[in-house]
Design a protein that fits this description.
It is a single chain. The protein is α/β, with parallel strands linked by helices. It has 8 helices and 6 strands, in the order αβαβαααββαβαβα. It has helices at residues 15-23, 41-60, 76-79, 86-91, 109-118, 148-161, 175-181, 199-209, and strands at 32-33, 64-68, 126-129, 134-135, 169-173, 189-191. Strands 3-2-5-6 form a 4-stranded parallel β-sheet, with helices on both faces. Helix 1 (15-23) packs antiparallel against helix 2 (41-60). The longest helix is centred in the N-terminal third of the chain and has 20 residues, at 41-60. It is globular. The relative contact order is 0.18.
Length: 211
């Protein structure tokens, strides 16, 4: 994977730079939202949560990354952390010793399944989305699959992330992320997405991956 040129005069040397870079990115059109951009309390909270998450993962030095599709409005769209809803931040031990911010206890099904799969595991994988912004339909309180243009943007962002974390194994949660990465990361492994009847298969596979 070739590194992309740096935009916005930001040289990405650490996770702080990466979050600033991410927050300044523009989405292709108004059918997706950069959940980290702007000065609203919600955007600031998501940005802070993501930075705390990245710093915590730095200390854990993860070798495995799970790449999903995109933030859903019930989960990452609220918290700023991939595959993580408000309920997880409020109840999971992983978030308990840092200053993660949370405004409620809303649950997202996919997030709940992923965190249930991680229970009891010593190894914490890095959680990410192939498109880190929220794609939606007519209403912002809907979800949709990211377009090919959005996925290309997300792949470029992921390439920047790979210079901060040295992942050795890539697992794609769902066909969208797998199809996006299989040509550039030949060893990427497909894992069925937990939605639409895939819960049991997804959980079993994740537990096998993490022993």
């Amino acid at each position: 994977m070739q590194r992309r040129a740096i935009f916005f005069d930001i040289m990405i040397r650490n996770v702080n730079d990466f979050v600033e870079y991410l927050a300044k990115m523009k989405t292709p059109d108004n059918t997706s939202v950069n959940i980290y951009a702007g000065n609203s309390p919600d955007a600031k909270m998501r940005k802070k949560n993501l930075l705390l998450y990245l710093k915590k993962m730095e200390t854990l030095n993860p070798k495995k990354i799970f790449v999903g599709e995109a933030p859903g409005f019930h989960g990452c769209g609220k918290t700023g952390i991939p595959f993580t809803d408000e309920f997880a931040i409020a109840t999971e031990y992983f978030f308990g010793d840092d200053d993660f911010k949370n405004y409620g206890l809303e649950k997202e099904r996919s997030a709940g399944i992923i965190w249930a799969s991680l229970k009891g595991k010593q190894e914490m994988p890095f959680l990410w989305n192939i498109y880190p912004f929220h794609p939606h339909k007519e209403s912002i309180q809907t979800n949709r699959t990211p377009s090919s243009k959005e996925i290309q943007i997300g792949r470029d962002i992921l390439m920047e992330l790979l210079f901060l974390f040295r992942f050795e194994q890539f697992y794609c949660i769902g066909k969208t992320s797998y199809n996006a990465l299989k040509d550039v990361i030949p060893d990427a492994v497909y894992v069925r997405h937990p939605s639409h009847g895939g819960m049991k298969e997804c959980m079993t596979k994740i537990r096998e991956i993490l022993n």
